[in-house]
Fold each of these.
Amino acid sequence: MRLVIKGGRVIDPANGIDDSMDVAIEDGLIKEVAANIDATGSEVMDAGGMIVAPGFIDMHVHLRDPGFEYSETIETGGKAAAAGGFTSICCMPNTKPVNDNPTVTSYIIERARKLSPVHVYPIGAITKGSEGEELASIGAMKQAGIVAISDDGRPVMNSRVMRRAMELAASWNIPVIDHCEDLNLSAGGDMHEGCVSVKRGLRGIPGASEDVMVARDILLAELTGARYHVAHISTANAVAMVAFAKSRGLKVSSEATPHHFVLADTDTAPYDSNYKMKPPLRASRDVEAITAGLVSGAVEVIATDHAPHAGSEKMQEFERCPFGILGLETAIGISLEQLVHTNRISLRKLVELFTTGPAKVLGIDKGCLTVGRMADITVFDTSHRWVYDVHKTLSKSKNSPFDQRQFQGGPVATIVAGRIVWRRP
Amino acid sequence: MSTTLAKGLLGIEELSKPDIESILLRAKDFQHVQHQPIKKMDLLRGKMIVNLFFESSTRTRTSFEIAAKRLGADTISITASGSSVSKGESLVDTLNTLGAMHPDAIVMRHASSGAPHFLARYLPTPIINAGDGTHEHPTQALLDARTILDLRPGLEGLRVAIIGDIAHSRVARSNVHLLSKFNANVVLCGPATLLPKELANIAPNVELTNDMNSAIKDADVIMMLRVQLERQHEVMFPANEYFKFYGLRLEHVERAKPNVIVMHPGPINRGRELSSEVADSQQSAILNQVENGVAVRMAVLERVLN
């Protein structure tokens, strides 16, 4: 079984390639990357006018499986990922039961192997039940296949527990990912604290609730030597602190979601829960700082924080609606719109943010088109005009603020282990 | 005839000045009705209005009910505790159920900010907001304006001090929007923890102070607000010193303009927000507010339903 992707612009930052080339795939592996590959007897994919890149990685996804299969499953989330151009995703541990032990880790890996078209890397909990007190079975989960630990959504408030978690994570050589939110400062908040929240009579989540946790975590990363990663960074201060930590040589990294670099609190439709997530959409100066962070390298990963919620959960009074929005299928479109078409970053940089960036943070063997590696490839374009219709999403849920938004460019085909798992309809 | 109002009344913020003026003018006609021996009219005969109160209320609910009845409409009042809400029905399902019975308007009070706005997106029935969380209470601002206009020729240039728990007050927000549209000068005053600094930017002509004496100095109108302990989820000001710094007493009133109007949306807590002497003083317009509530709500119902 041989597939040749012909005539595309191959961008493979890991190998320093940005050129018009063909890619040959054989037995699920990258066989050759070169100009004018002979395709006789092979299946051919015409990639003329398109970008051929290493498979994109989304290191922040909620698959809701086990426990909340009415919102998403490993299968539907995997399909939505493929439709978004991703070949690998990491799933957060806030399932029911929480992924705080190797049994749940193995369940996710086995289900994904059977049902998901894309690779799934579980992230384990930091503490048992993500309750912030007793450390989870980090070593055993690592042996079962987790690539990082995080109590995403329920951040560890006890600094001593966080310190111990970082010490253990460092010994297992996995990063600690933190959803940075001081729960006392954010308590009861439904959107970013600012003029908009005050006008709408909604309780606010101040930017400082993120900042104080980022500051704490950076200090603990220094104390422990751990690899520390800020999830869905949302404030100008947090970006500045991450840049400062990096300048001091600490192993600190960060990710930004497309919604946090395209929307501000002033862009939200009043009391529309499709704009409700944590961290909340911040002030426009924060949006600008995150974008600048992506340009400068303070932020090295784009991740979606894909957080499906069933319609009934989002059809309530605003303050009762859960936090989170879909993200997988719109990530490339938004990133092109906001970062590339505006000339803020190059296409090569965009590819890095989706490939080498997350691969390095996680320490996984992905994100390159090196000959002999598994053939995970994302083919996308930068010109095709399309409209996102959330009613056609492959996710099980429909909570997106980007419904009916028009994009220029997006995923064209997704190839996982040499197999085409999704093609633009 | 305003098309905005035909869809209901969700807040003052999105209401135009002419719409507000027309309601206030029409309310003046209805003031006289309150003193006639036969108070019932037939302007809304055959119309059905549902009063849906998800939060306890005496004066607002009664006032809306009387207003509807005086216009000749049929009314049903439902309170959350006595309905299917207590059996776990969602807000959407409750409203869809009511909507299927084809009322002509729904008057709604809810503890969540934006609850009526959320429903208005899905329900064709006009919704009149009778107070949503800490967001807006549009008919209160309208009746406050009517009350001031009964005693003053206009709102423009008046100095209006709104004092108390501003952070949690839907009355304050609606009044800020209304007064600002009419170029009154609004001074918001309260303890720092109950006075978010962003309030200065929600409308033009708004200033903030934590000092009650400077807020009241030369004021034409003083609006006192209730401390809404039920909406505070933490101790935001030491209770034992609230009255000392933010309770309205006669000595304060003397710092204002000579015939200052003292208002309060009720229910009043004597000895907490204001002293009994002030509540019962010549300057107090608190009962005028209640009386105007019916007239203003008649005008709103008529505008929405006709």
Amino acid sequence: MHQDELEFSISQYLDGTLPPLEATRVEETLASDASARAIFAEYQRLNHSLRAMPPAQVDWNAFSASISSKLAGEDAPVTTYRIGFGRVLRISAIAASILVVIGTSVMLLNRGSSKVEGPRISVATTAEPVIEISGPSIAVDPSPAVAVISIGPATGYTDSGRHSYEAIVTGPTRVVIASGTRGAQDSGDLPY
Amino acid sequence: MEPDAISKQPNPGEADGKLVRRVCKGDRTAFDELIAKYQRQAVAVSFRLLGNSNDAMEVVQDAFLKAFRSLDTLQKPEAFGGWLMRIVSNLSLNFRRSRKVRQQLPLDDMFGATSGDESQSGGEWMSKDADPQHTLESREMGAKLQWALQQLPEKQRLAIVMFTIDEMPQKQVAEALECSVEAVKWHVFQGRKKLRELLKDVL
């Protein structure tokens, strides 16, 4: 056995922490090796000297009472459950992974089951945006639209030979609706 | 050859877990139970690291306050003991560093030298008889041990203090040092080996 190993074994043997089989081996070495016995004896004396050092002289009751009185002003410790930053990060990473997997699965399923193409939006990029609107052309008469509604006797008072008031009261009504570019005054067909 | 009998304490984790859960539900008396249970161990560890009982008590008081305030952050309530010792050792080492910066205070009551009342300092090697020669030797031995402990790297010193001197269970030491039980064994061995070299004239 190497010297350092032997001393380590002796040290443990002295403390009573050596497994039984190894303890037996050390005992055999101690029985046959004078230098090993000398080391063991020195370690023993060292232990005794260290343990013989005087303990602190303390009035234990007074000491514990003084600690308790200091603690009286302290808030009682409360068990709290904190989620550390690392844990939050882990949970976020797991959640993100799940979302990515679900999203990818949904996309793949849609691509496989449906052949219908959705609306396409194509954006032509030019230096300046241009919007063109095209549709059926409408011919627009540049003159203003006029609607004439006149109410009066079916025939002119001059034709009937009656006075105009008679024609209004007794004659049938005439409705003229006209549209045109000319003004109503220009119709030449006065209702009254 | 008989190995040293290290007290095998039952796993206190289960009971600690219940107490911690009670405190978190608002039962302050449960924390008083934890104080009563761990105050000696906590002061002992801090005392070995600082060499002064007043400083150790101040640190331990702070450690209990800190533990109470952040009890709700304790992941494994069953590991309260190791967790508390980690707070105690960290605060002690910080205190020691700041003290080093401020001034070098005497390690008074570790050796009972400056108190002037030797009867207050117990301990097997701290002589209680009237033989001045024996008392002087004891003081010298204590001073050398304390000096040698301070030469160790922090992990080795903590492992020696918690496991060898204060006889804490290895699992709890592992929790306090945030390492495996095997690593605790290794730190103890390395610390022991260094102490043996440093103290070869007196051992």
